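Bug #77: duplicate submission created two jobs. Keeping one. Sequence:
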Amino acid sequence: MSTFSIAAATAVFDLVRDDLAAIESEFEIQSRSPVEVVTDIARYLIAGGGKRIRPLLLLLSAKALGCESEARIRLGAVVEMLHTATLVHDDIIDEASTRRGRPSSNTAWGNAKCVLAGDWLYMQSFQTALAERNFRILDLLISLTQEMVEGELLQMQKLGHLINEEEYFDLIYRKTAFLFKVSMQLGAAIAKAPDSLDEALGEYGRNLGLAFQIVDDVLDLTADETVLGKPVASDLREGKATLAVIHALERGTGAEREAIRTVLADRSFTRVSHAEILAILKNYGSLDYAMDTACAYAEAARLSIAALPDSDAKRALLWVPGYVTSRDH
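Kept job's structure:
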């Protein structure tokens, strides 16, 4: 019986440090193109860093099932390539000027080149996955891409409009949680896990992804811009109503609801300030409500892998939800 103890992030990342470094190298290799601008944009995006939580989940999922196949490195690069492609397209759609504290790629290269570089990354990720000759893997990746694109289109339709909690959860499942779910299921696919474990790992990823996005949305409203790496309250400026905002809208006075509606419609804080919106959210405990909801999904993630055999990797997976809900950026 292992006495491995998960005490901090370093302990978890130490467990897969070499694999994560190998994924980073694989990502760099797979991002090379004979067309120089594609390689330049890809390298710029890789250098921007990120939490690499999706490949981490894939590695821990495979490791928890005793799988040490080289496929885990290639597929780790695949999920990070897919995630990076979505970020490129998101920045273009949202007209974002910064990403992780640096100019976004579309600011540096323009929308036309970046949308094509994003398309190239999508196709390259499928090319890399195809080498596995595994229909289950391709099925997961195709479903993932469809869900993410549908989520983006749905969100665009709802910009500037009020949405309810059910619509919000549908959006964040498609845009964020589905990729977490598929990252876990890819680990199960290469380990040839039984359906019951595939389902449990997928449920873990779904619940963790929902928690992750809810926290992201709270941080967007409350975090310091220098910590966040992008302008605060970007969601409201883009006309997006997130969980805390929806909660306050359902409880506020007519004047408070109108203030929130004004920001969503204007997509700016010209007529109503960010501080006024935060005061409304705090008055109704809406930020706490959103964080409590995130913590409930984090706990659901932990419970969903109860049937996994005990291992260092399982203990790491049990630790990750706490990391997700306690982060500051």
